[in-house]
Amino acid sequence: MPENAHQQQLEKFENLVQALERSLIGIICAITGEDYAAEILPAETKYRRLVGSADVVFSHFVDLLHQPDLEAKTRFHALMERCLEFGVVRDRVNHSQYALLRHAADVVAPMQEQAGLRCKGDSPGQVIAEDLSVESFEPYFQRITDVLAELESFRLQVTDWKPAGK
C-alpha cells in the first residue's frame, strides 16, 4: 500500500474534524444570528472551547423557549461529548511521531509513537504504539459523518424554534 494512502486518510480525518467545526459554528450562528462569528471563531477559539460554547449557547437558547425541550438539551450535550472525543483523537494524531512499518519494500502502515515520561525506576523512552493502518480510520469517518448529520438536524430544529424574522 503506498505511503500517500496513509497521508490521504490523515487529511480526510482532518477535513472531517474541520467540517465539525464549521457545523458547530453554524449552530451558534443559527441561534445568535451573528454571521461574523463564522469568520472569527475557528481562528480565535480552540476546538474544546468551540464545542463547549456550542453546548452552552444551545442550552441557553432552549431554556429561553416558551416550552423548553429538556430532552433536546440532554441529547445535544451528549452529542457535544462525542464531538470532544474527535478533538482528542485529532490532537493525538497531529502531535505524534510516526514510524513507517515496512514489509519487504512495501509500506504496511505508519505506526504512531508516543514516548512515555521518564519516572523514577522506569526505563526511559518507553514507546506506546498505535495502529494507523488505512482501515483503522474508517470507523472514525463513519462516526464523524453520523455526528455531522445529527448536528445538521439540530441546526434545522433551531431554525424551526426561532420566531420568524429573528
What descriptors fit this protein?
166 residues, 5 helices, 3 strands, alpha+beta
Low-confidence sequence ranges: 114-129
Annotation, overall tally of beta strands? 3
Strand adjacency order, main sheet: 1-2-3
Helicity, as a percent range: 55-70%
How many domains comprise the coordinates?
Answer: 1
Q: What is the alpha-carbon Rg in Å?
A: 20 Å
Mean pLDDT: 78
Coarse morphology: elongated
Number of helices: 5
Sheet-strand content, in percent, reads 5-15%
The largest sheet is: 3 strands, antiparallel
Q: List SSEs in N-to-C order.
A: HHHHEEEH
Tell me about this structure:
- The protein is 63% helix and 13% strand.
- The chain has a three-stranded antiparallel β-sheet, with no helix packed on it.
- A hairpin with a 2-residue loop joins strand 1 (97-103) and strand 2.
- The N and C termini lie far apart (53 Å).
- With 166 residues, the chain is an alpha+beta fold.
- It is built from five helices and three strands; from the N terminus they run H-H-H-H-E-E-E-H.
